[in-house]
């Protein structure tokens, strides 16, 4: 992955080398106050003292000949603190400890080894012992760094796997992205991690998600200039302590992932590559979510058009049944009544006319009921509440008056699509109560709230165990519940189903209804039950 840097003034090669040398010297020195609070630092000093005391004791005892065994043993002890310093603080600790040992050893040269070139032999022993210890320390430090690099790589791969799983197991990417940025903040030496998604990815305004270890920097995050450069170059871009990676390198840019690195932390190329890999995962997830959302919108549009076509066809059939078929049956009943009036009171012809008249009236009643089931005219003329009252009335005729309607709030006319959807859901729920619930009571509750309306149909029937995903009811043959859910979603509503074996069932639908806010029922508006009127007896044709 190529790391694009913002334009900076050109520097000569020797200036860059000198700057790197100064950084290598002063960075360890800047960490010295922190080392003083580290117990391992003082362990090293104890080891240095433990190795220096025998050295001076041997010198003071008279074993000043550099070729004697005791004298060489004292010099060899310096390898121990060197190795421990390398294990504790790496190459930096080994070099600084070696310099410290040379400083502590130098007084013995001026006191006991000034003649016969003994000081030269002392220096030679140090030149052999200390570099040998430093080489071992360098090897230990190299292996330690390789192990740390492998651990960091393993942590990044684990994070990348976790990010991929989180993003691939949901289409609600916006909800998962904050957790993804939290994971990035945990594995990167960063102060802030931020993400901006373009409106094209969400069909809305710019979406910004920011995660920080501490308070946000005063100069603003996300950085708009850095974001613009990343979008234009389609490559990772770094400005100072900030890096931004575009989510896509081909096609329109859907967003930018950015990092504000922690102070005094060098940014490695592998860290930028890891950031690019996470950006790619986010890009794939965002694109999949966008395609899924477009597909769902297309399916909903298709389902809405199919539902509207069905309602239009039902309305046409209902009108034809009411205006033509029912009227023809009314004329037939009237003619049969006139024939019955002119026929003899007793006789076979009179009995046949009575049978025909009774059958005709039954057919007329069924046609009218079919017409109301297809599309009750009261729904278009008077609204939702009278239509549901009629549905409850018809359910009472078949359920021995066990159904009732309760209305809360101030009833108002809703959009045609919303009224039709809520009526069909109430109609289907009452049908389920009649056919399957074996209930002794069913209650339809309609609540008009400020900006919304809620419909609830509940019963005390046998109920059933509701699966976690309501859509899986289709495999169980419960298509009516699935149809209610789809109707609610087509008008932008929410659907919930609560039921348990032998504990009844409750279907609740809530739909947002933009318009003038109404006073809620608990703020002074009447909330009263409205039992459905009983069916009339002896009604004429």
Give me the secondary-structure category.
Answer: alpha+beta
Q: Which strands sit side by side, in order, in the main sheet?
A: 1-4-5-6-2-3
Round the Cα radius of gyration to an integer and report it.
43 Å
User: Mean pLDDT across all residues, rounded?
Assistant: 76
Main beta-sheet strand count, sense and barrel state: 6 strands, mixed
Helical content (DSSP H or I, runs of 4+): 55-70%
Helix run count: 15
| Element-level helix/strand string | EHHHHHHHEHEHEEEHHHHEHEEHEEE
Beta-strand portion reads 5-15%
The unreliable regions are 1-17, 516-541
Separation, N- and C-terminal Cα atoms: 84 Å
Shape: rod-shaped
* Topology, number of strands: 12
Your description of this structure?
With 541 residues, the chain is of the alpha+beta class. 60% of the residues lie in helices and 13% in strands. The chain has 15 helices and twelve strands. It has helices at residues 13-30, 32-36, 39-60, 69-76, 79-112, 118-168, 173-187, 199-202, 224-233, 269-342, 348-374, 377-381, 384-399, 416-437, 479-490; strands spanning 4-5, 190-197, 207-212, 237-239, 242-246, 255-261, 403-408, 442-449, 452-459, 494-499, 505-512, 527-530. The chain has a six-stranded mixed sheet with strand order 1-4-5-6-2-3, with helices on both faces. It has a six-stranded mixed sheet with strand order 10-11-9-8-7-12, covered by helices on one side. A hairpin with a 2-residue loop joins strand 4 (237-239) and strand 5. The relative contact order is 0.05.
